[in-house]
Amino acid sequence: MTKLRIIVSGGGTGGHIYPAMALIKRLKERDMIEDVLYVGTENGLESKIVTKAGIDFKTIKISGFKRKLTFENIKVLNMFFSSIGKSKKIIKEFKPDIVVGTGGYVSSAVVYAAHTLHIPTVIHEQNTIAGVTNKFLGHFVDRIAIAFKDAQDQFSEKSKIVYTGNPRAQEAAAIKANDRLKDFDLSPEKNTVMIFGGSRGAEPINKAVIDSLESFSKADFQMIFVTGRVHYDGVVKRIDEKYMSAPNISIEPYIDNMPEILPDLKLIVGRSGATSIAEITALGIPAIFIPSPYVTHDHQTKNARAIAANGAANILPESELTGEKLFNNVSEIMNSVDIQNKMSAASKEIGVPDASDKLISVLTGLVRK
């Protein structure tokens, strides 16, 4: 069996970091790592996540270009060239068989440096709309792994593209129903919907839930409402105490290890980030997506449309979001086993429960070459 010396780089957001971590985890499960090094930035989210996982971590200094022509961009350009030099030094010392980039500015320098040193390179694009870094790197890498088939239109180098799905999907697919609803004073036997606005929460979603709590409290199904830590105290102040103790409602600031609860849910309502979609479709869970309109190139809307196209999810734009519309959309699905089954089957058709293994096959193929 091939054992790899691998450098992985990705940073800035969890959407870039968690797929990288899922890939490393799967390589370790298959005993396919001789050594692994993660290259990120000192102040990025990756520095906390990667070091906490006990993975060797080195940093380079880099930042993104400003959208307007400014003097700052000259500094950024100089920093980019300097970071390529630092990346080359790291690569020469580590001697990897392959280098993988999962997005974010940091991966641009690391992967490009590996290319100039004639080391096999792969990038992974999680969204339907490719990020600036991956579009740049697409010209130089050996393979472009994509999580959405729609993303292939973002790259001119069609011969390099391979559809693997998102490694987070395989991580989620392995999770079984585990009665974790008991942790939130809910019954594992009752149908449950979870509504959340991402790790930080989203005020428009929170407002809509607050406005519809009376309806949810009378429903035949259960609801977990995840406000986001920064919003929780404000939400609690705005709602009637009776909803805090309603037997079919649980209001939480955040859920640690959230994927563990997914198999116990009949419906998920929230943002349409790439990681969420990978997990949801791997498990075949119906969804109502409320795409964030604040992300670059509105890629969450494009992500949501890709999943909704075959009936696996509904889309409720934030601009149209009200408490009444939210409840009506949720109850339509939660009160119909037929709709749930159809959406679940459609979701499983899209899901890639062996995404990590598919990506690993790409890596080993390049190394053998």
From TrEMBL:
Keywords: Cell cycle, Cell division, Cell membrane, Cell shape, Cell wall biogenesis/degradation, Glycosyltransferase, Membrane, Peptidoglycan synthesis, Transferase. Residues 6-146 form the Glycosyltransferase family 28 N-terminal domain. Coiled coil: none annotated. It catalyses: Mur2Ac(oyl-L-Ala-gamma-D-Glu-L-Lys-D-Ala-D-Ala)-di-trans,octa-cis-undecaprenyl diphosphate + UDP-N-acetyl-alpha-D-glucosamine = beta-D-GlcNAc-(1->4)-Mur2Ac(oyl-L-Ala-gamma-D-Glu-L-Lys-D-Ala-D-Ala)-di-trans,octa-cis-undecaprenyl diphosphate + UDP + H(+). Pathway: Cell wall biogenesis; peptidoglycan biosynthesis. UDP-N-acetyl-alpha-D-glucosamine binds at residues 13-15, 127, 199, 255, 300. It is a peripheral membrane protein. GO terms for molecular function: glycosyltransferase activity. Its EC number is 2.4.1.227. The keyword Iron does not apply. Its main location: membrane. It is found in: Cell membrane. It comes from the Bacteria. Residues 192-358 form the Glycosyl transferase family 28 C-terminal domain. Belongs to the glycosyltransferase 28 family. MurG subfamily. Cell wall formation. Catalyzes the transfer of a GlcNAc subunit on undecaprenyl-pyrophosphoryl-MurNAc-pentapeptide (lipid intermediate I) to form undecaprenyl-pyrophosphoryl-MurNAc-(pentapeptide)GlcNAc (lipid intermediate II). This is UDP-N-acetylglucosamine--N-acetylmuramyl-(pentapeptide) pyrophosphoryl-undecaprenol N-acetylglucosamine transferase. The gene is murG.
